[in-house]
Fold SsrA-binding protein.
Amino acid sequence: MNQVRKADPNNKTVAENRKARFSYEVLDTIETGLVLTGTEVKSLRQGQANIQDSYASVEGGEIWLINSYLPEYLQANRFNHEPRRRRKLLLNKREMAKLSQSVDREGMTLVPLKIYFNDQGRAKLLLAVGRGKKLHDKRETEKQRDWSREKGRLLKERG
């Protein structure tokens, strides 16, 4: 018996950093949890977060998400959160050690790719370990993307 899986309303992407894959060569990804307050979760559910200019940093044996923007929740009045505060990422010790080692030794960068809600309704962050691309690498990526788009058009025309 083959069951068709319905789209879960909890499992949705809230914010995506589309520029990250263009600017960085993504070598590895890891799913992390976020330490959020109640108003931040409600604001995320409204889907207006922005992680375009954010990054993750290893400080004091912990990993922090810096410069991410979660707008204030309008119905919270005085109990609201700071929109650009630093948010702690939840990882186990082995994962934190691996990430901090790659950042320190190999000169990698921790780049957030997207924030989403998983099947249990918890906010998760997809964090990438990446190396910054040079200008010629970015041009090559753009050429490949344009060629694949043009190839798709040609195949569609000729059937």
